[in-house]
Amino acid sequence: MSFEHSDFLDMSSPPAKQAAYAQLLAQTRAVFEGERDGLANLAQFSALIFNTVPGLNWAGFYMARGEELVLGPFQGKLACVRIPFSRGVCGACARTRSVQCIEDVHAFPGHIACDSASASELVLPVLVDGQLKAVFDLDSPLPARFDADDVRGFEAALAVLSAATDWASLPG
């Protein structure tokens, strides 16, 4: 199974985007078949997303530790290591345990600019048995890169990841 950017080049229409996310879901299931290790799964998921979804400059996890997030497996440039729940888009996601889909990060109060090239951001909570384990953060240099179809697609892929992962194998 190939994991190339070209698999997702046509996300210009809702039907094309839905087909792309169906393919991503199938790839996610294939990657995690028979693997439960938390660190391996989070690293593989980050790489899969970063290398198959166009228009991203960062994709990865921040792990919940008390009232802050600590950098986890990711793909992209160097990143902020610690983010308090009280700051930034990732902190807002962790604090509210709700998806943050931000069209213009520069207009978001308290935005943390780890990479000045980022223009939009999507952050999804990773909840296991009602507990926040992490947030999955996606940054894009494109304004308004993310929409409701992206939210649904990534939520479905994260559900596969969550079910396939032994969360007790991760520190925390």
Characterise this structure:
The chain has about 170 residues and is α+β, with helices and mostly antiparallel strands. It has one domain: 2-Layer Sandwich (Beta-Lactamase). Helices cover about 35% and strands about 25% of the residues. The chain is built from four helices and six strands. It has a six-stranded antiparallel sheet, with helices on both faces. A hairpin with a 5-residue loop joins strand 2 and strand 3. The radius of gyration is 15 Å and the shape is globular. The N and C termini lie far apart (about 35 Å). The N terminus is likely disordered. It comes from Uliginosibacterium sediminicola. It holds the Pfam family GAF_2. This is GAF domain-containing protein. Belongs to the free Met sulfoxide reductase family.
Tags for this model:
single chain, disordered N terminus, Beta-Lactamase, GAF, globular, 172 residues, FRMsr_CS, GAF-like_dom_sf, six-stranded antiparallel β-sheet, GAF domain-containing protein, alpha+beta, 6 strands
Helices and strands, with pairings:
Elements: H1 14-32, H2 38-52, E1 58-65, E2 68-76, E3 82-84, H3 88-96, E4 100-102, E5 120-128, E6 131-140, H4 148-164
Helix pairs in contact: 1-2, 1-4
What is the CATH homology-level superfamily? GAF domain
Poorly predicted ranges: 1-7
Query: How large is the count of helical segments?
Result: 4
- CATH-defined fold name: Beta-Lactamase
State the helicity in percent bands: 25-40%
Computed CA radius of gyration, to the nearest angstrom? 15 Å
Q: Give a count of the beta strands, DSSP E runs of length 2 or more.
A: 6
* Number of self-contained structural domains: 1
How much of the residues is beta strand, in percent? 15-25%
* CATH arch. level architecture: 2-Layer Sandwich
The CATH class turns out to be: Alpha Beta
Main sheet, how many strands, which sense, barrel?
6 strands, antiparallel
Structural class per helix/strand content?
Answer: alpha+beta
Instruction: Give the terminus-to-terminus CA distance.
Output: 33 Å
Shape: globular
SSE succession: HHEEEHEEEH
